[in-house]
Here is the input.
Amino acid sequence: MVISHLTLENRASPFTVPRVAITGRDIVYWGGIHFTPLRSDTVIDATGVRAIVAGEYEKAGLRREEVETGAVIITGETARKENAREVLSALSEFAGDFVVATAGPDLESILAARGAGADEYSKKYRCKLLHFDIGGGTSNLALFDRGKLLETGCLDIGGRLLKVDGGGRVVYRSPALRPWAELLPPMGRRVEAADLAPLVDAMTAALEEAVPEDVHVLSFSGGVADCMWEGPSDWRTYGDVGPLLGPALRRRLEGAGYTLVRGAETIRATVVGAGAHSVEVSGSTIYCRDVTFPLKNLPVLRLAPEEEAAGEEALAAAVERKLSWYADQEGLSQAALALTGEVSPPYKRVAQLARGLRAGLAPLEAAGHFPVVVVERDMAKVLGQAMGGEGPLLCLDGVRVREGDYIDIGAPVAGGSVLPVVVKTLAFTNSEPGEDRARRDL
Here is the structure.
């Protein structure tokens, strides 16, 4: 758990609609690192999680009502547990109006990479960079080119896929290790580091194989990233293979000539964002049909400019692919699709864009939800009219959001001409990977 003090500022002129932005962020409390309490290999101890969070609030000297906003994100191996959503209920007294989500592997890749500063590093040094967030059960990958996100991915490789007790006896083997079954020691056997070397080598080889040929800069976060640079002297300290995997991966990749960058955040990369409310109002050219307000905690899927400019089929495919980022065992969840839009486009272009969006959003409607489209430029009304169809539909403009934001949309105000919008931004650190970490620790 990380608690930050956020400075918000109205960046608009005195005679225009307010536009509130985060202009400063100071971390005031860093929570400890805790193993997720489990009742079994597949069930989270929700009460135990609640006790950890309550204890951290007490250590921080804060009451729940003093924390105005935030985010609860369930990620990685924990998100796969049978009762992951039960944790959200257990944290309800602390979460309040927080953004709450179970992050799939794609979203987790984005959150971790931004939290580690991988996107800023790629942009600053104008390089192509692959970020690895290596945790207990998964390795989430995000590929950037000069700061722009290109692809995400996930591998079933992590430090806690094989666990040992204090004496080095194997007490857990994850089903994800089945491809390397012949390399696994039997349950209950006491093992040394050398016994696990073949398995660790296979895992590091699989991670290296994920690197595209044209990428030479790699950055890292997650618990295993700490072990790459300063792991414990006894590999059994954490009861898993993370302290073996980290150094082995570093040796392999440095030997292959890659430039390795330690993330600005490592084990805390995903959680380093704190929620910040930024209140805006939509533009006055909205299109709203049969929508029941308010809409709360809609995750934002952002189209890149080239995706917006693509033909109908390519646009539809891009929308459908991004929708899949928010799919879980229960199917697709309600989301908002964001795009920049165009200045005074001809109707032919608007119609083409509308057809592509409608086709791409079809799986969302099939799942029982309705399209919500957020446009920066002033074209929402004509776009909504062009999208046509039946049932609820909402298009609003004049709001700037980015991938990873969540939005609340209130009922129309000012005679129905505008909508109040609360943008909940994950306020990722702006520090560069590799910068002096002592400054952060003061």
Residues 273-278, 428-442 have pLDDT under 50 and may be disordered.
